[in-house]
Amino acid sequence: MLSMKARLNELESFLFTSDTIFFKENWVNETPPGWLIRDMSGWYKSLVKLKNIAAKENANVVFGHDPEVFAQFAVKVHGE
Question: Which InterPro entries does the annotation name (predicted)?
Fold first, then answer.
C-alpha cells in the first residue's frame, strides 16, 4: 500500500496515507476502508506502521479521501 511522508522543515512533517487510510475514522477506529482491501492482515500491518511513523515524526496525517482533513490543512497552508 502506498503512502508518503514529507518533511517541510525540522519542525513540521506530513504523512499522506493515500488509499491505505481513506478517512480519519479508519485511523481512529482501526477499521479498514471497505471492500477494496483484499489483505486485511497486510492492511493492519500498514496501519500500525503508519501510526508509528506519525508518532515518531509528530506528523500531520492527511487521509486519502477525507474532505474535513483537506479543509483543515487548506486553512493551515493558505492562512484563511
Answer: RibonucZ/Hydroxyglut_hydro (IPR036866)
